């Protein structure tokens, strides 16, 4: 890997960028040497405070890893994203919404969004929601999702968005864990011309959620839905009757803003909890500097608000900066594979931010879908969600960006809240496939399996972060013990990311992917344990082990090894049933690609499944299976190899 292909940001771009190399280096140095002064300055620059804080950073990653930023400071996220812009840009677009159907779009100004948020905040209050209460949001990519988030923030309620592609059971688990009072959904969702019955799913979930007293339903698809009198209300009716005046609740910087469930290596999904001040600061600052956002530009992040990328980079970061944020309801290949670029031309998009899986899919569809559109307003491209392979990077750069737009590769996580390692454009050269250098205040390091820091360079190891940063999660909802155990036990005193990384000769970081039992399929995180739990629900299944294997489009595919109960036969029909079962339990995003029925699984003498071997067989990498001598029955491996499915 020594001949790294270094690419420079074009001079004219660099000349007008918010941050150049010299500034990056001196600011980075200050952010590490004197974080309190550095972040206090940023907090005053980027946010509006009702009352100043008592202390900037308190706490560290030792012991219980209790960390606070700007404690005692009072602010409100909705005020920062809406009210403070009204005088200067009240009539400017806040959200430019593009529907699934290319003939449908809507522009919502800051003034309009502010009014709608105030009204809906009053609706929530009238339904008994007050500061600290949880509200679940299960909506498609429609403006009401932004309204719901900001209305919660305005009154201090904690939102928990559940991606619309999750099943009723997954929604139920998340509502129950958060003990939400209200769930906000829509009659249907519309994606790629297809309707999904979201309200029907929410009904199934809510039937098992005694905490839910109200279901607010947005009309989107227009088809009839079941109605539970006394619980269900229409969004449009409630909002029409609500007052447009609702003061923004002064929140402590450390009051919770949202919970977002994400997959971990074990057990049920974790409710990652973010708070108010530090989160908004780093979301706003990275949005401005990483995307080199200039006032008046149209900025487009294609993520869904059900993921952290949608939270930080469709809603909170851009709106805190008074940006024009494009929100897209549809999919990249509807009505055809040119949709992204057609939308870029239609709305004069300057910044475009998407995931490698979408880039690879569109690359496979052919250049003509891109080149038939102008893309002349594009200035910067971004990528997130998984490592981008250099081939996809080159195509994105050359074909989509006409070789003229820099690409920012942004590494971060649900847990980190905002960008952590990224090539700041105008300051840092690009290296296809590398996220390169830490953002301000972030100290990455590599640690070996024994927990020793690897100080030499180049090197490869487990990626950790040394000190707290403002937008880090503060806890797992209702389970601080699990928070400590998951992130701070493995390497005491450090935050463990779960990712592996390489540091090259130049000191730049290359994320190599998860080193734990978390899969990354199309940029979506899925725990192998969740999928295994779903598989063993089937009466014929005795045991299951799930691993990822390299997949051209989705990055990773899902490979399941299934052992059946004695006397049962594995055939195509049963495999199909199991694929369906997992889809029903978790949702369409958990699509198993390959199921291998196995008489038994390779285990150590203590009964631990040797996933390392299963991963190699699934990847069809048979040369280097490693040491199998500790297996209880080494012969099992040969049977698995003979019957492997990815040849
Ligand atoms: C923002 C987001 C986090 C995991 C993370 C890593 C992978 C994200 C990446 C990347 C390489 C990048 N990941 N961005 N890997 N390069 N630029 O995706 O959050 O859904 O929590 O996933 O995604 O493995 O640990 P989340």
TrEMBL record:
Signal peptide (UniProt feature, chain positions): none
Cross-referenced SUPFAM superfamilies: Acetyl-CoA synthetase-like (SSF56801)
PTM comment: Acetylated. Deacetylation by the SIR2-homolog deacetylase activates the enzyme.
Annotated CoA binding sites: 191-194, 309, 333, 522, 583
Protein residues bound to Mg(2+): 536, 538, 541
Residues covered by the Acetyl-coenzyme A synthetase N-terminal domain: 24-81
Residue span, AMP-dependent synthetase/ligase domain: 83-477
GO biological process, one term: acetyl-CoA biosynthetic process from acetate
Cofactor(s) in the UniProt record: Mg(2+)
GO CC term, one of those recorded: cytosol
Keywords from the named record: Acetylation, ATP-binding, Ligase, Magnesium, Metal-binding, Nucleotide-binding
Positions where N6-acetyllysine occurs in the chain: 608
Enzyme class: ligase
CDD domains: ACS
Keyword Metal-binding among UniProt keywords: yes
Known EC number: 6.2.1.1
Annotated TM spans: none
Recorded family membership: Belongs to the ATP-dependent AMP-binding enzyme family.
Function statement: Catalyzes the conversion of acetate into acetyl-CoA (AcCoA), an essential intermediate at the junction of anabolic and catabolic pathways. AcsA undergoes a two-step reaction. In the first half reaction, AcsA combines acetate with ATP to form acetyl-adenylate (AcAMP) intermediate. In the second half reaction, it can then transfer the acetyl group from AcAMP to the sulfhydryl group of CoA, forming the product AcCoA.
PANTHER family assigned: ACETYL-COENZYME A SYNTHETASE (PTHR24095), ACETYL-COENZYME A SYNTHETASE 1 (PTHR24095:SF14)
UniProt protein name: Acetyl-coenzyme A synthetase
């Amino acid at each position: 890997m020594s001949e790294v292909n270094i690419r420079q940001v074009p001079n004219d771009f660099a000349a007008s960028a918010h941050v150049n190399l010299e500034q990056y280096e001196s600011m980075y140095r200050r952010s590490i040497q004197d974080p309190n002064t550095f972040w206090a300055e940023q907090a005053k620059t980027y946010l509006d405070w009702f009352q100043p804080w008592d202390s900037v950073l308190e706490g560290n990653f030792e012991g219980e890893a209790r960390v606070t930023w700007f404690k005692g400071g009072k602010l409100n996220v909705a005020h920062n994203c809406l009210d403070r812009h009204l005088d200067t840009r009240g009539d400017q677009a806040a959200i430019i919404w593009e529907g699934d159907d290319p003939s449908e779009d809507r522009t919502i100004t800051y003034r309009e969004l502010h009014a709608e948020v105030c009204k809906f905040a009053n609706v929530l209050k009238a339904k008994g929601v007050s500061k600290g209460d949880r509200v679940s949001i299960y909506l498609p990519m429609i403006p009401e999702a932004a309204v719901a988030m900001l209305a919660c923030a305005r009154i201090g309620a904690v939102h928990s968005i559940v991606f619309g592609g999750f099943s009723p059971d997954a929604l139920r688990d998340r509502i129950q864990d958060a003990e939400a009072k209200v769930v906000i959904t829509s009659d249907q969702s519309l994606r790629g011309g297809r309707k999904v019955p979201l309200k029907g799913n929410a009904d199934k979930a809510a039937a098992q959620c005694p905490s839910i007293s109200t279901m607010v339903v947005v009309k989107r698809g227009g088809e009839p839905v079941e109605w539970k009198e006394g619980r269900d209300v229409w969004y449009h009716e409630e909002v029409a009757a609500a007052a447009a005046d609702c003061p923004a609740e002064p929140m402590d910087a450390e009051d919770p803003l949202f919970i977002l469930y994400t997959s971990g290596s074990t057990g049920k999904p974790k409710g990652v909890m973010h708070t108010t001040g530090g989160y908004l600061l780093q979301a706003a600052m990275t949005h401005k500097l990483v995307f080199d956002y200039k006032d008046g530009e149209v900025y487009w992040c294609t993520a869904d608000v059900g993921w952290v990328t949608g939270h930080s980079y469709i809603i909170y970061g851009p709106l805190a900066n008074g940006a024009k944020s494009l929100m897209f309801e549809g999919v990249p290949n509807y009505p055809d594979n040119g949709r992204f670029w057609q939308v870029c031309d239609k709305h004069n998009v300057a910044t475009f931010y998407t995931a490698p899986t979408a880039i690879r899919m569109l690359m496979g569809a052919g250049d003509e879908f891109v080149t038939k559109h102008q893309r002349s307003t594009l200035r910067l491209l971004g990528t997130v969600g998984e490592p981008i392979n250099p081939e996809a990077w080159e195509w994105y750069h050359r074909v989509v960006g006409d070789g003229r737009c820099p690409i920012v590769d942004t590494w971060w996580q649900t847990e980190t809240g905002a960008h952590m390692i990224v090539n700041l454009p105008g300051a840092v050269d690009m290296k296809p496939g590398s996220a390169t250098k830490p953002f301000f205040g972030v100290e990455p390091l590599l640690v070996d399996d024994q927990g020793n820091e690897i100080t030499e360079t180049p090197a490869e190891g487990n990626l950790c972060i040394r000190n707290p940063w403002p937008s880090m999660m503060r806890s797992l909802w209702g389970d601080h013990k699990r928070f400590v155990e998951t992130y701070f036990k493995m390497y005491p005193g450090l935050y463990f990311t779960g990712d592996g990384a390489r540091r090259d000769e130049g000191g730049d970081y290359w994320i190599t992917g998860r080193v734990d039992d978390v899969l990354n399929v199309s940029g979506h995180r899925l725990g192998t344990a969740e999928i295994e739990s779903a598989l063993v629900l089937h009466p014929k299944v005795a045991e299951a082990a799930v691993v990822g294997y390299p997949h051209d489009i989705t990055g990773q595919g899902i490979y399941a090894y299934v052992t059946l109960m004695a006397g049962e036969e594995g055939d195509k029909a049963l495999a199909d049933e199991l694929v369906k079962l997992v889809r029903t339990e978790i949702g369409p995003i958990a699509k198993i690609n390959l199921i291998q029925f196995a008489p038994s699984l390779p285990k150590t003498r203590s009964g631990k499944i040797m996933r390392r071997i299963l991963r190699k067989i699934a990847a069809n990498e048979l040369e280097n299976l490693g040491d199998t001598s500790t297996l209880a029955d080494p012969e099992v491996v040969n049977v698995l190899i003979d019957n492997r499915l990815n040849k």
